């Protein structure tokens, strides 16, 4: 099957590209391509079984009313209608969009700031230490981060102890259990986790910028701010694109942090699509509606990420 | 990395699209799921002998619930040809996995069960009626097994589909030291007295109720305790058993919700209740940070260990003095898979749990709950001056008063997560009205029943 897949099109291409190909030449080409396909076959099979098949099945399930076990009933687009009209589900999608601010914009903005500060100390032992510390939140499992932060933010946690110590006891509250502060508090956890990733990517990007550009800017009388806006920022277009892509996906598809720190509560204040999909499918056994929400979430991710990809790909500096 | 993410050659897109198309055509022809229309015969012959052939019973039990394992060990000790292979998960995980695990080819023989109606509908649970007859379980008090019956998509009547590994009772645990500090000399006998104690504790600087409300609504415990008292508990039971026409929108439920709202506004629950989970609640109560905790006898043995002599228990008081006690009480339900390989041995084990003297003792000492079984068998006693002895006594009292009801949280598969928990969180934070609460819970209930 591999050789059939590989050889047929390549053979035809060959004929068009080269007017008089010898038979031996052609078969050598075909064999090479066939072997190439053979190499990617294992990965392709895994991809098909574990990514494409679930994707297709999700699309299919989203058109049915199904409890996961019994016979499914065809309902067409009804599940999608529910996703777009149910006020709870709309609120849940809205929560994910709010989280983009915390998971994406704040880490990227802070990351830029931190990266420009530590740019000059990227080499040597001190640089390694700085990078390691900044990257640490990425290494810690999200579940552990969620638990640690829920302790910090609890009513007797370190955050409230600190507030009380400086006479701000009136502000102290159970941050993750309060209707007004729960979502921002979850956002802060996400920002903490993702800041390191953004900083490291941006520091790496900065180290690739030609120092001559900075020198030229300085000779032209640019201060640190002007230098940053005129040289650093444009040069980091691709890195910023990657940061935004990764963090926006993390925001929209968030699950672990929310599940551990608040379980979506209080009320529906911090429920996000990932959590709701899981609940709908496994505890409420509405596999169809869960699948429809999953498809909508996927489209939402693509709608946010594809424009960023296009923008950051733009003309190279 | 930037390269990887930004470049996505057209050829690859074409390939992906064609693979997707192939997948589509391969899967989209048939509807998912299979028709498992009933193939069980309830009058099939069953064996009540264990025999001597080696048997391995597959058991799917709950983590943090050591009773199942302890009983299995003792059973193997008494019947050397039977071994157990026990898989454990958290209860919420079992709730999510049960249907799929039971539909698989490796279906367990004995499984800890969540709500049963759906499983019966999907024909995943073994009908235990033949064993009921064969073993003479009609000698058990009928109310003991009532919650385990399913018929016509409602619970409470019909065929038997499960048995309890212990039968739990719920009520109020209290910290004896704090109780005497606020002048409580004996457990309250009416709801009004209970509320007086709450007020006294509050003014005395003692946290009146330590109750969790994160993840799942622990405040549903006091809510239902009040609801049971403010109306006819049969109404509550009918609603849980999904009897046609039953509703949550009743004066009793509304009054209970108003009372909970009043308690929340008065600061009887902790300010961070919505951020407090079950383990946190038990921890705080053990540390002496709360006077009352609504909970069940499964914590008795644990509390006896962590705060010996300092913890008491009472059934939630009645609305008027001398009234009938009503409490949430549920079997720790285990059922037999329809696809079980050794259903006879599984049923033998379930019968043994209820009737064997040693097994009954283990139910009490390890599980902390009443072992159930025939009413003429003695209930093993717990050590004196323990809260375990108090909960056992309460369990017997409740049985005598016939006051056991199931949990409202068990009414449907999704009612707890989809309605009770978020709405209760809103209620105590002042984001929901009592009227809105009962209507929201009933709306979700109807939505689920209509599916």
UniProtKB/TrEMBL annotation, chain B:
UniProt keyword Cell division, yes or no: no
What is a single Pfam family found in this protein's UniProt entry?
SBP_bac_1
Q: What is its main location?
A: other
Residues in the signal sequence: 1-30
Q: Which keywords fit this entry according to its UniProt record?
A: Signal, Transport
Task: Please tell me one Gene Ontology term that the record gives under cellular component.
Answer: cell envelope
Say which family it is in. Answer: Belongs to the bacterial solute-binding protein 1 family.
Q: What is this protein called?
A: ABC transporter substrate-binding protein
- Which organism does this record belong to? Micromonospora inaquosa
């Amino acid at each position: 099957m591999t050789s059939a897949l590989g050889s047929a099109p390549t053979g035809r291409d060959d004929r068009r590209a080269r007017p008089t190909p010898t038979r031996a030449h052609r078969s050598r080409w075909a064999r090479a391509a066939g072997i190439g396909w053979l190499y990617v076959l294992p990965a392709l099979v895994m991809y098909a079984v574990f990514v494409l098949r679930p994707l297709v099945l999700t699309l299919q399930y989203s058109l049915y009313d199904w409890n996961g076990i019994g016979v499914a009933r065809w309902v067409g687009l009804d599940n999608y209608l529910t996703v777009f009209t149910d006020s709870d589900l709309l609120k849940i999608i809205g929560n994910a969009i709010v989280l983009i601010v915390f998971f994406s914009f704040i880490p990227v903005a802070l990351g830029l700031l931190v990266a420009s500060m530590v740019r000059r100390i990227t080499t040597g032992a001190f640089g390694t230490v700085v990078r390691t510390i900044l990257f640490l939140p990425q290494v810690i499992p999200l579940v552990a981060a969620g638990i640690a932060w829920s302790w910090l933010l609890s009513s007797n946690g370190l955050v409230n102890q600190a507030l009380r110590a400086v006479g701000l006891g009136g502000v102290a509250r159970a941050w993750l259990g309060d209707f007004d502060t729960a979502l921002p508090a979850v956002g802060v956890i996400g920002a903490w986790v993702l800041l390191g990733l953004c900083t490291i990517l941006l520091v790496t990007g900065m180290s690739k910028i030609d120092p001559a550009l900075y020198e030229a800017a300085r000779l032209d009388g640019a201060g640190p701010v002007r230098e940053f806006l005129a040289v650093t920022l444009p040069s980091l277009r691709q890195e910023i694109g990657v940061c935004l892509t990764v963090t926006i996906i993390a925001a929209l598809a968030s699950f672990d942090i929310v599940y551990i720190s608040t379980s979506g509560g209080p009320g529906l204040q911090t429920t996000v699509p990932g959590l709701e999909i899981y609940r709908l499918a496994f505890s409420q056994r509405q596999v169809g509606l869960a699948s429809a929400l999953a498809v909508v979430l996927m489209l939402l991710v693509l709608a946010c990420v594809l424009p960023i990809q296009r923008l950051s790909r733009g003309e190279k500096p | 990395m930037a390269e990887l993410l930004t470049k996505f050659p057209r050829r690859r897109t074409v390939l992906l699209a064609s693979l997707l198309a192939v997948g589509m055509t391969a899967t989209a022809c048939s509807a998912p799921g299979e028709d498992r229309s009933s193939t069980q015969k309830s009058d099939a012959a069953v064996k009540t002998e264990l025999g001597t052939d080696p048997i391995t019973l597959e058991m799917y039990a709950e983590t943090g619930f050591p009773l199942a394992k302890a009983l299995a060990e003792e059973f193997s000790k008494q019947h050397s040809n039977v071994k157990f292979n026990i898989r454990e998960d958290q209860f919420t995980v079992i709730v999510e996995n049960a249907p799929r695990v039971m539909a698989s080819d490796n279906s367990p023989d004995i499984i800890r069960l969540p709500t049963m109606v759906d499983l019966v509908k999907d024909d995943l649970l073994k009908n235990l009626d033949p064993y009921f007859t064969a073993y003479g379980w009609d000698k058990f008090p009928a109310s003991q097994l009532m919650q385990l019956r399913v018929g016509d998509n409602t619970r409470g009547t019909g065929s038997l589909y499960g048995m309890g590994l212990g039968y739990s009772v719920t009520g109020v645990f209290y910290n004896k030291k704090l109780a005497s500090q606020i002048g409580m000399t004996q457990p309250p006998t009416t709801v009004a007295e209970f509320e007086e104690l709450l007020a006294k504790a509050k003014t005395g600087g003692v946290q009146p109720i330590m109750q969790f409300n994160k993840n799942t609504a622990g405040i549903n415990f006091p809510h239902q305790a009040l609801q049971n008292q403010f109306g006819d508990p049969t109404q509550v039971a009918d609603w849980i058993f999904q009897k046609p026409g039953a509703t949550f929108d009743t004066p009793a439920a509304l009054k209970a919700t108003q009372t909970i709202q009043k308690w929340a506004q008065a600061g009887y629950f902790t300010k961070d209740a919505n951020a407090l989970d079950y383990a946190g609640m038990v921890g705080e109560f053990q540390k002496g940070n709360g006077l009352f905790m609504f909970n069940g006898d499964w914590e008795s043995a644990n509390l006896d260990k962590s705060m010996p002599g300092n913890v008491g228990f009472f059934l939630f008081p009645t609305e008027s003095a001398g009234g009938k006690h009503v409490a949430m009480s549920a079997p720790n339900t285990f059922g037999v898979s329809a696809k079980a390989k050794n259903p006879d041995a599984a049923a033998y084990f379930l019968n043994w749990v209820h009737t064997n003297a040693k097994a009954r003792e283990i139910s009490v000492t390890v599980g902390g709950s009443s072992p159930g079984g025939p009413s003429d068998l003695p209930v093993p006693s717990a050590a004196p001056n323990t809260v375990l002895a108090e909960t056992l006594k309460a369990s017997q009292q409740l049985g005598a008063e016939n006051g056991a009801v199931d949990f409202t949280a068990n009414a449907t598969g999704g009612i707890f997560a989809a309605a009770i928990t978020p709405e209760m969180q809103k209620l105590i934070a002042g984001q929901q009205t009592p009227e809105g609460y009962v209507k929201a819970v009933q709306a979700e209930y109807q939505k689920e029943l209509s599916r």
